[in-house]
Amino acid sequence: MSKYVIFPIKNQIVWNLYKKLLNNFWIGDNEKVSGLIYNDNLFKYLIREIDCNEIKFFLSHAMFIESLHSDIISSPESNIKLDWINLQISNDLKLSRLIVISICKYYIFYIDFNLLPNTSNVIHIRLDIKIIKEMLLILFNFVSFDGYLVLFKDLFEEAICIQTNYMINELKISSIETKTIIEELRKELELFIPA
Fold it and tell me: Residue 172 domain-assigned?
């Protein structure tokens, strides 16, 4: 069996997520969305570290999807979230750390998209993010994190702090509303590290 052949499918759950992502294919309309998409090559690094063809197929398509997103998103040139992601990547490219940084990106930094008005582009981006989050949960359970949970809690806390400041200072969301959103986010993150 060649590593370049996908069939027979060995991981049907991952393959189904890949097909779900494919089925959400769309091309953004002329409407620009104000938000932040980080085309930071995280998935490129993950693909190198993963030895499962179905996951590689998914991540390759997710990279393509992220490029589509960046085409319709108007982002500022300088961004503390992207700077943080790039710093984390430059520190360590271990598979477990890459997965946690990806979780920070999709679960924490992309909650902004829940705050945008329901336009066609935003609805498609939200669905793409939801599918990628499902894959990240699978990837998290795919890898051993023994001895790293404290470090990952610290990374989650750093990312939450950055997101909180961004919501208050850049998006001008009230402290009370931001606190409520962050509390809901923490509950979602318990999928990865119980409180």
Answer: no
